[in-house]
Amino acid sequence: MAFPTLEDVVGNTPLVRLKRIAAGRNNTLLAKLEGNNPAGSVKDRPALSMLSEAEARGDIHAGDTLIEATSGNTGIALAMAAAIKGYRMVLIMPESASSERKQAMAAYGAELVTVTKEAGMEGARDLAQEMILKGEGKPLNQFANPDNPWSHYRTTGPELWQQTEGRITHFVSSMGTTGTIMGVSQYLKEQRDSVQIVGLQPEDGATIAGIRRWPKEYLPSIFDASRVDRILDIGQYEAEEHMRRLAREEGILAGVSSGGALAGALRIAEENENAVIVFIVCDRGDRYLSTGLYAPEQ
User: Fold this and answer.
1) How many domains does the chain have?
2) Would the annotation count 257 as a binding residue?
3) pLDDT, tens digit, for every residue of 167-182?
4) Where are the N6-(pyridoxal phosphate)lysine residues found in this chain (predicted)?
5) 179 marked as part of a ligand binding site
6) Is residue 260 annotated as involved in ligand binding?
């Protein structure tokens, strides 16, 4: 009997119907529980894809040092993947990331380098590039790496099509690196072009982990605007409130970007009837407990 390895159990996550949060107009609201991946987020898929595909091309070899800028989930997933495959992983991130995220990366053996909260992800990406140019490690660059969306074209998209038996009408996803929405959109549009792809970005001034409104010069090169039918702006309070609703009304403990995805899905539901609306629950909420976001509302 052949037993699976940890890599074999990435993906094939549950798709569950919400029971108490009403979508109205006979709509079905479905949550894709990516927190069920081994390292706890949707980023397990591209992390393993980027390492495996780079190995297959001969771009990296066991023992190499890899460098990546991350706001959290990709870093945790890459730290896990590097532990599985035998790489030294250096992760660069804003110091404002939650302590749970930093501790999880370190637990997998990754080395952390932080930039200031003010420098943010743009500063982390700049520093990663500087270190790579100095020869301190090899890049993965999730923002420009086609193996990122490829992982979702190959796994997430087909799973959603099969799990909904081809009935999906709307796909709602937060946009950070944009790998998830790019890969899923390509697959679903190949099955039925009328499936609506809805991306989420933060309102001006909002700071929502996992959702970004990139300055033009930092826009991920893997992003193709033609693959997104509609983009919604999500507010800070709106995302946090719907994150708490997921936990308290549906028993789904997730992060702020997942709350934003629920908020976006509910907006779509208000405009449609008899729709099958799928949204991505990007990760688990236990990595946000120290932020106080789940504390009783004042």
Assistant:
1) 2
2) yes
3) 999 999 999 999 999 9
4) 43
5) yes
6) no
